[in-house]
Structures are given as structure tokens and as C-alpha cells.
Amino acid sequence: MADGNDGQRFDRLPATEAERTVDGRATREAVVDYFADRFGIPPATFDDYTFWEKGAGKIWIYRGEAPTPLEIEAIGMTCLRTRQEHWKPTTDVVQRFGDHATECVIDLDREQARRFAAGEDQMLEWWDGDWGYLIAAHEIAGEAEAIGVGLYVHGELRSMVPKGRQRDLEP
Fold first, then answer.
1. What's 14's DSSP letter?
2. Do 41 and 96 contact (CB within 8 A), yes or no?
3. Against a cut of 0.70, is the pTM above it?
4. Alpha-carbon gap, residue 105 to 64, rounded angstroms
5. Which of 21, 70, 93, 147 is the most exposed place for a label (fewest CB within 10 A)?
């Protein structure tokens, strides 16, 4: 593996810190631990997946194996942003794996879910869980479905649904 980050190349995350060759690069172990510690997603959920970094801190998840490095446009789906103070999961990974989460999931009623999907921020002072990034979910057909990522601070849930994915759903 070449040293340094390259925005045109995917490098597989090292399994552990001991295998890291690029300063600041996340490890597979750290990514899996993040999802387990923050959201209660069992580590075994990711057994069949590999994690990749393209550029500085943009982590992708891919089901399967591939040689490293790879000079391609995309592999799998974006998963996590790590080179910032607080790691931020993507809408894609939350919608794909959020049903495994047992922690930091905020269950929204119909109107709250509608507003969240539309990209609206809303005061939800009833939440008594952790602040920070949460999985926003709504019950559909008797099961909680992840809508996306929200940022909860000071009683406010901020929708992190990307503008191009926001939907104005009927009340």
C-alpha cells in the first residue's frame, strides 16, 4: 500500500492499529467498534464486509473482497466520515444496517418522520438519550425503519438527510 491518502484511490482499512501505515487512517476494528458502541449494531453484522478509505476520512463499505489499492470511482457504498471531531455515519449505511441498531435510535411519530424526511429540523425535548448523531426511525407495518441520520443537540433534532434525498411526504 502506498503511503498517504489519495482522492483517486481506494485503500482497504487496516484490520488494527498495529497494521496501520497511514497516519490518522481508521481501522476496521475502530469502525466496527464505533457501530457497536454508538448504535448497538453487533460486530458480526459486518463479517462479510470490507471497509475502504478514499481520500481523507471518507469510508466505504463493500460486501466481499477486492485487491488493494483500487483506482476506481466507487466500491460498495459510502459508510462513514472519520476525519473530523465526531464520526458521522451516512444515510446509506443507516438505511442499510439501522435495523440492527439497539442504541441511539430515536423513534419518530408520523408527523415527526414526515418533517425529518423533508429535511426539517425540529424541537424534540422528550429525547432522553445521548446527544450527537442518531438513527431516526419510524414504525412502518409494525417494524421500525431507519429514515436517516439526525444530529441531536440542545433539544433539537437536525435532519441530516441530503438535499437530493429529501422528500415532501403528504401528512
1. P
2. no
3. yes
4. 28
5. 21
Q: What is the domain partition of the chain in residue ranges?
A: 10-98, 104-165
For 104-165, which CATH class? mainly beta
Beta bridge partners of 139: 144
> Cβ distance 68 to 54 under 8 Å?
no
Of 114, 102, 111, the C-alpha closest to 148 is 114
For residue range 108-130, what is the model confidence (pLDDT) as tens digits? 999 999 999 999 999 999 999 99
Amino acid at the residue 132: G
- The answer to whether the beta carbons of residues 124 and 157 sit under 8 Å apart is yes
Integer distance in angstroms from the first to the last C-alpha of the chain? 52
Return d(Cα 96, Cα 145) in angstroms, integer.
Answer: 10
Sequence-ordered list of residues with C-beta below 8 angstroms from that of 125, at least 6 positions apart, any chain: 155
Distance CA 80, CA 77 (A): 10
Order the strands of the 10-12 sheet from edge to edge: 10-12, 49-54, 58-63, 77-81, 88-89
> How does pLDDT run across 1-49, given as a tens digit for each residue?
446 666 678 889 999 998 888 888 899 999 999 999 999 999 999 999 9
